[in-house]
């Protein structure tokens, strides 16, 4: 932004607090999340589900069932969603809580998915994120892996890959996932 | 950029600056849409910049009188167009058109469906836009209202400075633009340098806080502005050589008005020409007044009464009312009659020059208006400048009429009139060069005086 004048490192360092923290904005987030929850429960898409933790609408736990025909078939993965007060204009923070072996997911559960980063748009919602993640399980983006070994194995040795997936997988409880 | 003027930094400082640069997010303070400012502020802002910028910004205020800053958070271009769209509707002042816009935008649901945006995804955002349109329609005053568009401008300004309202509107415009591009692939794919339109829209149009690019501007113009009859004009203030900003225009087929943005690399603001900013003049009197004066060369009491409501005419340079002429000023200006030795041609030339020529600074007001002796022409009496005042500033050389003492002392008044109270010919008026505040004095109240300079209107 070469239009900003009189900037010096000191002022650059002071990040302004998020502008969207007004009460009305929070009310809007709540309203939006309530309607998302409603449509998720009504639609009951197979293989995905999500629900707020302990009545806190800004933190959800979601479940994805591994799609058939992938190394994750039959496995149940839990994820956490943390919604910022600026949602849906900023992406939720989504983490895999269930240990998973995947080229685009690191061992802390962090996900490399463009729509959760720079391609996030307000048109996405919990359901579309979960569907994207579900398809990511079967179609990893091996060009930009977080887990290089997994990316290599995916192409070279599917059987070995599947072993790693099963070895790493561990079913967790909702309480664990909610932390 | 921001570190350019720093002294050569050490390696540590460089690392620190690099870290700041990596973490830097565009400034998010300041209003989302700023107040109207004179565009000379931009010139001032660039006064110490690159010579190319200096030249271009110096030329800017000649064409655009005002501008409005938008917050540079990546939505500025979208916000600028959306805000200017609402302002254009407000300026246009047609309630029906605003309602028609709601209907028109709702009719885009088919392209939204075709582009894969189900209505349940868009409706919340769309509703923000429709809601503001409906509020705008309500706030637009009826056409004969003398105070145009003040409320509606405040309404739009407030709405665009409300985080969630403007975020919803911008998001819907992004969706609409994306849908338009996706349903007009042939028009846009040649400009995407091989990128698939769906990838492009997912990368550059739909993400909130992604700056608008040329393809997006074109599509947004096509979908939002063009059918509404709004042309779009974008001067580019960048480092390309030249004395003036480069202009990019998008023309509506039947333009009603023009929306103007200022582009600086990575940022958009809203620009205004003087006619966009000024309230339309709803004072038909100001047009008819000169005719009125001209057609009544002789003062009568009726005219005094009839003209009472027209005080503001004094603000218009070169226009005066019959009633403004103080008794003694007739003496000063009274022409020495047809027996004058001066050639008539000169009188004619005097009679035509004053109106446009006098910028009429406050100090230049001086009593004697010029009365044209040739009444049959029906030309107005026009004030000429400062026959007695030495502070003459106009472009004209002094007239013989001003210098000739015998002329200046002139014949006695032939008829009398009272000073219009709010006239600058009244010394109690602040624009009068001999201004003296009026003071009530109980003694003077009961004294009849011929000191006409202190007389009050209607006595």
UniProtKB/TrEMBL annotation, chain A:
Region (Disordered): 1-26
Keywords: ATP-binding, Nucleotide-binding, Transferase, Ubl conjugation pathway
Domain UBC core: 28-174
UniProt keyword annotation of Nucleotide-binding present: yes
PROSITE patterns documented for this protein: UBC_1, UBC_2
Top enzyme class: transferase
Active site per UniProt: 112
EC number: 2.3.2.23
SUPFAM superfamilies on file: UBC-like
Top-rank lineage group of the source organism: Eukaryota
UniProt GO MF annotations: ATP binding; ubiquitin conjugating enzyme activity
Pfam families: UQ_con
Entry keyword annotation includes Phosphoprotein: no
Compositional bias annotation for Polar residues: 8-26
Family affiliation: Belongs to the ubiquitin-conjugating enzyme family.
Protein name per Swiss-Prot or TrEMBL: Ubiquitin-conjugating enzyme E2 2
Organism: Viridothelium virens (Speckled blister lichen)
Automatic annotation (TrEMBL), chain B:
Keywords from the named record: Hydrolase, Protease, Thiol protease, Ubl conjugation pathway
Residue span, OTU domain: 65-274
Single GO cellular component term: nucleus
Class of this enzyme: hydrolase
One MF annotation (Gene Ontology) recorded for this entry: ubiquitin binding
GO BP terms in the entry: protein K48-linked deubiquitination; proteolysis
Transmembrane spans: none
PROSITE patterns to which the protein is assigned, alphabetical: OTU
InterPro entries: OTU_dom, Papain-like_cys_pep_sf, Peptidase_C65_otubain, Peptidase_C65_otubain_sub1, Peptidase_C65_otubain_sub2
The UniProt record lists the keyword Hydrolase: yes
Enzyme Commission number: 3.4.19.12
Domain of life: Eukaryota
Disordered: annotated segments: 435-459
Catalytic activity: Thiol-dependent hydrolysis of ester, thioester, amide, peptide and isopeptide bonds formed by the C-terminal Gly of ubiquitin (a 76-residue protein attached to proteins as an intracellular targeting signal)
Protein name: ubiquitinyl hydrolase 1
Organism (species): Viridothelium virens
